[in-house]
Amino acid sequence: MIAELIYVACGITSAGCALLLFRGYRASGARLLLWAALCFVGLTLENIVLYIDLVLAPSLDLFYWRSILGLAGLVALIYGLIWESR
Prior knowledge:
- By secondary structure, the chain is an all-alpha fold.
- It has one domain (2-84).
- Helix content is 87%, strand content 0%.
- It has helices at 2-28, 31-56, 63-84.
- The protein is elongated, with a radius of gyration of 14 Å.
- The chain starts with a helix and ends with a helix.
């Protein structure tokens, strides 16, 4: 029960961060905010798949899909950090 609540809370928090970062990007135009928002979109998707994997369908093994989504988000952030440092 508590674990499921924590999965949902993490997903909501990631989605909130992505939303605030997108709003900040739209207001200021700072591209680093866009890359960070894309990272949090990936982390939000990872949390959604985590909930599906461990709570809704525990018989499925979605470990690799979760990992790919999290990695894609982090790669977007790293790419943005490198691109914007130039």
